[in-house]
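Supplementary Text 2. Reproducibility record for the structural model of the 320-residue chain.

All settings were left at their defaults, and a single model was retained for analysis rather than an ensemble. We include the record here because the model underlies the residue-level annotations in Supplementary Table 4.
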Amino acid sequence: MKQEYQDLILQVCGASSLRVGSKIQTLWSGYGEIVRLYLEGCDRPSVVVKHVKFPEEAEHPGGWNTDRSHSRKVRSYQVETHWYQNYSTNQRCRIPACLAARSYGDEMLIVLEDLDVASYDQRRTSVKDREIRACLSWLAHFHAVFLGAAPEGLWPVGTYWHLETRPDELEAMEDAELKAAASDIDRILNECRFKTIVHGDAKLANFCFSQSGQDVAAVDFQYVGGGCGIKDVVYFLGSCMEEKECEKRVPALLDYYFSELKLSVKKDVDSDALEKEWREMFAFAWTDFHRFLLGWMPGHWKINRYSKQLTKEVLHKLKQ
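Retained model, structure tokens:
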């Protein structure tokens, strides 16, 4: 790590020295890394640094190496930097505190609170009902905090699969009927009355859990932006349950999300109308992500019977 970056971290943390620890992960397509740094001489034992470095040649696991793909990723890190510098949440939808965020030409540095130190030190690859509900509660509170807020400096429409940012994947689709309906589905989602700020990549891997699994914090705000909150819910549920589980458990989990949302929104919000609209958007949001997967990676495990059934229902509604 460059001395200039180390000096910034020492300064913002009030530390006397630092040691580069383990790499937490490499960023998507080789765009840098996330590392943990250990500090001496201050009240923080460690921080997490997201170090973005735009590569000469990107390596995309799906083979989508295009100028458009690169521009989208560059924008995503600019959005994430802006998010951490300008937005805040509350304890019910916990995110790491941002200690510093800087751009250095083709490199960016985001210095974050280490959530492990704050007792969110558990990661899950599979979850029980308690953890699913903790994440849905986080999303409900997050959507309530930003209900009606303009996504200033963020993506106008959040989520990484938003149709406008994915023309290559749309072009690659073989499902002609869904391909033709994609813009109508996108328009219906974008025209919903109740809008909030969505996390945009609310998969299980982006949640950090307490030991009990009852408390949770979220990370990775590259695709945070405006939109219908149910898009986050759909993406989260699809990230941690297979088709049979979805068929069996989604109704009760949606009930739980909406009960948490109703408890969280301001008193002047028509929560019944909000719930009615977002429930109606559920199948459209699920189908919208299904559309992305069909173009991006047609063999993906999430392309399953449950997704196909919801898509069939949506296409039928559009014909009426």
